[in-house]
Each structure stands twice: as C-alpha cells, then as structure tokens.
Amino acid sequence: MAELFHETGASGWANSSAYWMPYTARNGFNRDPRMIKGARGCYFISDDDRQIFDGLSGLWCCGFGHNRAEIAEAVNRQLQVLDYSPAFQYGHPSVFKLADRLTQIAPASLNHVFFTNSGSESADTSLKLARAYWRMRGQPSKTRYIGRIKGYHGVNFAGTSLGGIGANRRLFGHLADADHLPHTLRVEDAFTRGQPQGGEELADHLEQLVMLHDASNIAAVIVEPMSGSAGVIVPPSAYLARLRALCDKHDILLIFDEVITGFARTGGAFGADTFGVIPDMMNLAKALTNGVIPMGAVLTNDEIYDAFVDEQQPDHMIGMPHGYTYSGHPVACAAALAALDIFEQDDMVGRAQRMAPLLEETLHQLKGLPYITDIRNVGMAGALQIAPRDADPLVRPYELGVRCFAEGLYVRWGGDTLQFAPPLTCTSNDLERMGDVLKKVFRTLK
Question: Based on the domain organization, do 382 and 273 belong to the same domain?
C-alpha cells in the first residue's frame, strides 16, 4: 500500500499504513483526514484549531466532560505512589475501595465486582462466569448463550458471536454457537419520543428458543438495556420485565451489557434503574473512568459469587481461574474513583434528567428534513435513522458525519444511523448549536 503523507495545521502529522485504524473507512479518511489534537469540556479541538462539539461523548465514554482536572490530579497522585500492582494473589487499597463504591451505587443485589480492562473483556468475562456458575451448580449442560439481533457486546470472540450486528460478524465467520432474540425496533414506533409501549411479544421469542434447546442447555441471555451501537434502539416499556420473568421461569441468567447505558446515560444511574429491571450480572466500562484510562467491570449478585466461594477450600486453591494482567490497575482505579466523585458530587443523574428533554426536542424538531426515516431517544442518547441511497444504507450517514465535522460537530455514524450522546455537562446553547448544524447539513445532502 502506498503511503500518503500530509502536513496540516500547527501540529503536523504523517498518515501512513503503519497505523491500522479500527472501525474506519481508511480510503475516505486518507482523502479527508479528521484529526483531533485536544479537548476541553464538551469540545474537541481539531488540528486546525476549530472547536468541535462532542456529540457522542467520545465513544459514549466521556460523559462528564473532557480533561476533568479532578481525574488528572488523582491519576498523577497515584503514579507517584503505586504505578502497578500484581492482580493475581495480591491486592492494593484502591481496588477494594472502588469495588465498594461501585456496589453502593449499583442496583440492589449486585454486590460483587470483577475488574476487566474494556467492555469487550467485560462481555467475555460475564459469559465465562455464566458457564462456570452452572458447572459449579452441577448443571454443566447449560452452555448455550442467547443474544439479540442488533445487539453489540464488543469485539472479542464471545461478544462478537452474541452481538447481532451483521457487519461486525461477516468478516470473521462462525466464532461460537449463539442464538439471537429479535430486535426491538418496531416499524409502528417510528418517531416515538422516549420509550415505546408494550413489547412483551418480542421477549416471548425466548420461549421458542427454550422449546428448541431446552432450558437445561441454556446458560444466559445477554442484552443491552438500550441498544446503543445499533442506533439507540429503546426497549418498549414491558419488554425487559418480561425477559426477566422468562429467565427466572426457565432458570437462565440475565446479563445486562451496560457499557454504554451505565453512569446516567439513560437518565438513571444505570439502565437497570431507568427501566426498573435488575439483572444477575451487569457489564460496565467506558464512563467508569470517564474514558480517561481503559477499565471495565462485571458486577454479579450474591448467588453467582457464592457459587465460587468455598470457605472450606484449602488456602492455596484458586476459586476463579480467570483474570487479566491489568485487572483493577491502581492508576485506572484512581481515575475511576475520581470519576465516581464527579458522578455523585455533580449530580450527573440529575443533569441527565434535566437535559434529556432538550436533547429530545433538538432531535425531534428535525422530523421532516430530507432522508430522516426515524428519530429515537432516551435519556441523554438519541439517533437519526437515514434513508439509503441506491440501496446502500451506509453512504448518507458517512457523508453526513463528515459534513458535520466540517461544520464543528462530531457525531457517530454507524450503519444507517447518526448517533448522539453528548456530555451530561453540556448546555442548552450547545444542543441548540448541534441542532443548527444538523439542519444545515441535511438541507445540503443529496
């Protein structure tokens, strides 16, 4: 591949094939590079010194605003005391403190924390725990997993298999056995503000999978409370409660992937709080450190944790042979503890609830503009669904995203959607500016 070199702005940079970019249309990027050199508050700074409103909180992760001094100072202090501590067979104070803090704000009964380094690792960890749990319970045949069409659970083997976005699976072939529930994007719910009603019939498809495989062979169902990467697909009001009841009925674990929905994105502390349904396990990452340092976590209830804890076991026996070199990294813990201070002291749940109606209005006022076929929102998240051009659903969102960046707005384009999750610290003026940019770019699109 021929190398392409560019010089632009005060920073200067070289674009070559050395950096293999993730989830990027590389040819389009080479022709129209989009470079970010700084960030502050709710804005990125481009390499030509323009302020770019962050319409997705980075990648759903910087919800408390960029470059928070409190987190930077906490990380700096930690680096001067303990830069690394072995995660296996040894502990350090911050990791125990962080676990306690998380269980205090988590939904009731999620009282134990296993630390990972990303949402992808959290997904695979929770799925491994599900299989191990049933083996510890004397039911080793319970090995099958069930995900959901249009779901996203990261990019590792199990998460890719349980995910339900075809473009994320097509290139890699069959990775692991998995079945999928239908998605919850109903045609009749188009342009609904907030949460649609009903939805029990969508959860009832689990009964068909139980008939096919028998519950004795199913370990867990994993879903996002709200499907973020597929374009903010909001669950109908009765859907998650029905899914919880069916999992209880058939003795199947329910895992919520809250990597995107955690820490006030949906208007409650977690999606479980927003939608009033408590899972057996909950996956976290992204906003756990406000995006500053990679970190993830899996929270479990007492029943799962207790299955691995045997007080009569010899002192030298390992209860759970799973973990990562950087599990509960002390610097990541410092960042997460500082982020939790911000989350609580700055009342991020209250901020989300106050700003959510403004985001809803900002997006739904675009109804009627060319090529918008649906608008969805919940809490501080929303999406615009875009009509295809010449049977290609990807081209218009790409063009819109690139034009938005040129006009001072960063949005995420994925599939046939534009996705929005601005920082919880944004203002009404920020959202008004975002709406003005969107009106402008839609009116110039072909």
Answer: no
